[in-house]
Amino acid sequence: MAVTIRDVAREAQVSVATVSRALSSPDLVRPATRERVLTAAAQLGYQPNRAARGLITGRTGNMGIVVPDLNNPFFTGVLKGVQARARQADYAVFVADSDEDRATEEQLVRAMAKQVDGVIVCSPGIDDTQLYEAAGITSLVMLNRRLRGVPAALMNSASGMRQVVDHLVALGHRKLVYLNGPRTSWSNRERRRGLRLATQQHGVELIELGPFPPRYEGGLQACDLALATKSTAIMAYNDIMALGVLARLRDRGIGVPGDVSVTGFDDLMFAELCSPPLTTVAMPLATAGSLAVDLLLDGLNSDSAEVRHVDLDTQLIVRATTSPPPA
């Protein structure tokens, strides 16, 4: 038979009400009593009834996350961090995929708000006004989008692109082409910001193409246009696009990195496994997901008006798709 709250109360020699307070509002219980209740619950293997606890605390014990594309391993990497941290906090995670559609994204956030304690929006494409409206109906945290007044876990894309440019310039490249991701993407804007600062600092030519879909097909589409610019290095918005670029170059008999260098962004698992292995920028995906959960829990459990925007470092990973340009 399942262990009940009465069993825990009997084991800890306290009332049922004390067990309830110790588990839902521990600050209201003396430390020694709380420890006795927690020990009894652990020994008996007691699992609180989530619905019953919700009636007491006003919480559902659920949180939501909306991502643009579950087929993209970038977002599954983030989800691993979200789910691991949520599990530690005894929260269930509801996941929804907007399929890169802004209207769907807004609808999903509104629908989730009725069923969860808060929502994490990953790389949101909806505009600032819509995000502020969402923040008015539920606790909201953003991942890879900065907006005043809304907590955010941010991965430093601008720094990552500066590292890419520094690397390519050190190899001798003087004409670079960048394949833009989605027009509404905050991450893409940040990458462009880092690119422009770095290319201006080094005095090298930067050509921008796109936007392109942030998928394999986007890289296939962009590759011929990039080659037409006569640039010696192609920088893709993300690793998946870079794989499309590599495939098209291979079809055309163009050597990498002998004829042209290629870089990606994100350091997904197959960046190291493809041939040749891809030079890219490592993003702290799981760490960002875990941080987003912490920011959401902080907002739920604190009366502080402080809004935190936390930047996480990115790191260039040099592999075999970059080398000095052809003579």
Automatic annotation (TrEMBL):
Entry keyword annotation includes DNA-binding: yes
Entries under InterPro entries matching the protein: HTH_LacI, LacI/GalR-like_sensor, Lambda_DNA-bd_dom_sf, Peripla_BP_I
Name of protein: Periplasmic binding protein/LacI transcriptional regulator
Keyword Repeat: no
Domain HTH lacI-type: 3-57
Keywords: DNA-binding, Transcription, Transcription regulation
Entry superkingdom: Bacteria
Signal sequence range: none
Species assigned in the record: Kibdelosporangium persicum
